[in-house]
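hi! just following up on the protien thing from before. the input was this:
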Amino acid sequence: MRAVGYKKSLPASDNEALLDISLPEPDVGPSDVLVAVKAVGVNPVDTKIRMRKEPAPGETAILGWDAAGIVTAVGSDVTAFQSGDEVWYAGAIDRPGCNAERHAVDARIISHKPESLSFAEAAAMPLTFLTAWELLFDRLKLSAEDEDAIIFITGAAGGVGSAIIQLAQALTRATIVGTASRDESRAWTKKMGADHVIDHSKSLTSAYRKLGLSAVTHVASLTHSDQHFDDLVELLRPQGKLALIDDPATPLDIMKMKQKSLSLHWEFMYTRSLFQTPDMNRQGEILKKVAAMIDADRIKSTMTTNLGPVNAANLRAAHLQLESHHTVGKIVLAGFDR
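and the predicted 3d structure came back as:
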């Protein structure tokens, strides 16, 4: 089968950074389904792993953790899916990725695809909406009943930010404040449903106070957490909550959080599948809920760019775009035509 992989950690501008390759069909375990991949989403985690985790000599690694496709076979223990089902999922970080024509994935972390979306539109969403849902409701414990909640989102125009805004708007009564610096990203953040947008290239504290709102109750720090940390601690009310997903370049001085009794939460979407947690099937359940919300027109796909077929050249272009840190929404690729 056709696939795209990498042998060395090279800049995305290098023609050898990602390669068109041929692989044997994947094995299907008892808890797996085999999916004919129709479209994939591309995420910052793809670029990070490409540069940080070089395969052993002679080996080729496959990236990709957002997919939509059609089930072609099911494992012996699988009862919830059958051949012909259209599904979407984000996969597991300790297994080969989905940048391949066929992909084996644990049935507990997938769900049926939203009927109202194309494969490309659907592939843009699983990883970011799982991350957003877990961050909001599993980590920050944001309550739908808390009408005084104010959630502050840094880097709100990206894939995860777009998902957090939509879920918070649809499922809570919180006031939503997002940060974005360019005109395009500010417009997108408002389109997703943010109540207020401020410029993160300037002082967050000063810009926020000009809004005339009370203190922030929940923070979703999605990028440059080390640069914004002092402002975020200052903005949070006593006993507030801060969750982050990025990899700060410098350590965070969490002692600054003590006086306010602030809590710090990490969100890593792959935790449940990586450790085979007892609630691993919750990811499939979350995706099922998101699919129902999409089909009810309560939230929308965050796809903004379709770069065409899944091949090395198009994936290199996607990685370059993500590494520019100016991506709005999500990038997808669809089909395997060269």
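The longest helix spans residues 126-139.
The CA atoms of residues 68 and 119 lie 5 Å apart.
cheers
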